[in-house]
Amino acid sequence: MVPTKRPFPLLRPASTSDAAAIRSNDWVAFRQLGNLHDHWTLKSWAPGQSGYYWYLTFDDPALTDLAERCQKTLADDGIDLVPLDALHMTLLSVGKVGEVSDEQLAGIADAARARLADIAPFEVEVGPLTGSASALRFSVAPWHNLLGLHHALRTATAAHRPTSRLPETTDFRPHVGIGYLNRPRASAALIADVAALRDLPPVTVRVSEVDLVELRRDGRRYRWTDRAVLTLA
């Protein structure tokens, strides 16, 4: 049975500012999964579909090294690895291309730019490795600045997409993916493999800008084109 679309983990951590609580919550939720799913079926897209999203993108060498080390250990024919030049955090879905006009997109970017002027750059720790029902990903902590960023972007987007069902900030679960499962499988073996990598220390990355991207699927990879890059205050 394929799970319905809900945030993962379903429950939020006891604290959104305590890294240990966030990491434990992620890990406990992953370890409780009995079966894992094909990401490309679970997150199905129509042929040729593309959409607009708010993203954080990363090219930090320490994060790239951590991702590469984990990917080399876990690589097999059941995992589609995220390219190292495509590490990202999905913040918010804006809407499908064709449903959002160029005028709306420009208005969303302008509204977000005004709101981000009040948000200073901040740092987060990425790691250790964990997973979800169809992906391998790093925990990210703390959440409080990311939640504030999500709320600001959601508010700016909703002003120009008032009838859309934008994800709520309370359903946002920050993470950075490094691989997508491409077949159903029992979870035990992969959980054990991930557990062996959890001693790798998290890395600190700086968040200083946000990307509004046009996202597409290129085979079994996500690729995007920047439509706007906005800096924090």
What does the secondary structure layout of this molecule look like, with pairings?
Blueprint: H1 19-31, E1 35-36, H2 39-42, E2 50-57, H3 61-74, E3 79-81, E4 88-96, H4 102-116, E5 122-131, E6 135-141, H5 144-158, E7 175-181, E8 185-186, H6 188-195, E9 203-207, E10 209-217, E11 222-231
Antiparallel strand pairs: 1-8, 2-4, 2-10, 3-7, 5-6, 5-9, 6-7, 10-11
Q: How are the strands of the largest sheet arranged?
A: 3-7-6-5-9
Terminus-to-terminus distance: 45 Å
Shape: globular
Relative strand content: 25-35%
Number of helices: 6
Calculate Rg over CA atoms.
Answer: 17 Å
Contiguous uncertain segments of 5+ residues = none
Helix content: 25-40%
Question: Strand pairing plus helix content: what structural class?
Answer: alpha+beta
Question: H/E order of the elements?
Answer: HEHEHEEHEEHEEHEEE
Query: How many extended strands?
Result: 11
* Biggest pleated sheet: 5 strands, antiparallel
Could you report the average pLDDT, rounded to the nearest whole number? 96
Protein name: 2'-5' RNA ligase family protein
Organism: Nocardia sputorum
Structure in words:
It comes from Nocardia sputorum. InterPro entries: Cyclic_Pdiesterase. This is 2'-5' RNA ligase family protein. Pfam families: 2_5_RNA_ligase2 (PF13563). The protein is globular, with a radius of gyration of 17 Å. The protein has a five-stranded antiparallel beta sheet with strand order 3-7-6-5-9, sandwiched between helices. A four-stranded antiparallel beta sheet has the order 4-2-10-11. Helix 4 runs antiparallel to helix 5. With 233 residues, it is of the alpha+beta class. A hairpin with a 4-residue loop joins strand 10 and strand 11 (222-231). It has six helices and eleven strands. It has helices spanning 19-31, 39-42, 61-74, 102-116, 144-158, 188-195, and strands spanning 35-36, 50-57, 79-81, 88-96, 122-131, 135-141, 175-181, 185-186, 203-207, 209-217, 222-231.
